[in-house]
Here is the input.
Amino acid sequence: WEKYLEVCHAQAAPERLFRLVSNAFEVGWLLEAIDPINQSLFCSMSVVCVRGHRIRLQYIGYKDCYDIWVNSDSPFIFPCGFCKRTGRQLLPPKEHDPKSFDWNNYVESNPNFSIAPEEVFASMPTSLSNLTKFEIKDKLEAIDRQNSELICVATVIDMLGDVVLIHFDGWDSEYDYWTHATSALIHPVGWCEENGRLLSPPQGYVGENFNWEQHLNETGFRAAPTQCFDCVPHEFVTGMKLEAVDPRNQSLVRVASVSEVEEHRIKIHFDGWDSIYDEWFDVDSSDLHPVNWCQKTGHPLEPQLTVKDRDQNKGG
Ligand code: MLY
Here is the structure.
């Protein structure tokens, strides 16, 4: 990296913009995890690969094409029994009955697996009492991660420590997402009006002008108090170098640069690759890491593509 930064006359994205802890997970361990595709679901998963500070998880009973990669300190993975203890619904392994499923019975009949010990989880269940001032059902204005040009009428529907689950009023749960309470993706009621931005009303909203007061009255819930929001602007600048997970092959972390910057997201360029492969990442993405993260955590790093690689047609 040192040499590469010098050659590129580039600055590394400062380390304080990221977090770093250790990884004690082992293959075959069982856990509960939030489904990144449908974030209101908690699924039963097994660790199938450990690489540096990243772990590959498999939905138990499902094909490996659905596997996901998470950081070992993810706030979205939990010890077995977490859902039961906290009154949440766990999706059990394929073909198991959600009502009668029990992890201990499962391990007895599947001795290749074992229950991951609680102390390897960064977010221990004891520290998961709510740290934010949000309350369940609080209303707010939130960016739709999947349609990031839209700021929409939304509700906090679950909380864990200092992360909150955002649901879009009138829409299916497929758009739901978890985010840190200090995220740049969420704003208080009235933010759009104050900032001259268009607010997307709930789906199926009848009437031209959406009116918050009326919506709050109708739903009977409060606007989240402004003290709940504590967004610190991100410090990414175009040209900064970093290490980023390749969205096309989640097992790979590549040498990358910030190619464009917006309020809540940054465009990532994979060095040496055509810019058609550039991808937007929300600034709170857990797939962005500082320079030297791979080396420090023992994860392979895919170097920048060279002219020679490109001539051999590896650059697409
Ligand atoms: N084109 C999409 C947009 C969906 C937006 C959903 N957000 C607001 C939660 C559609 O109409 O399905």
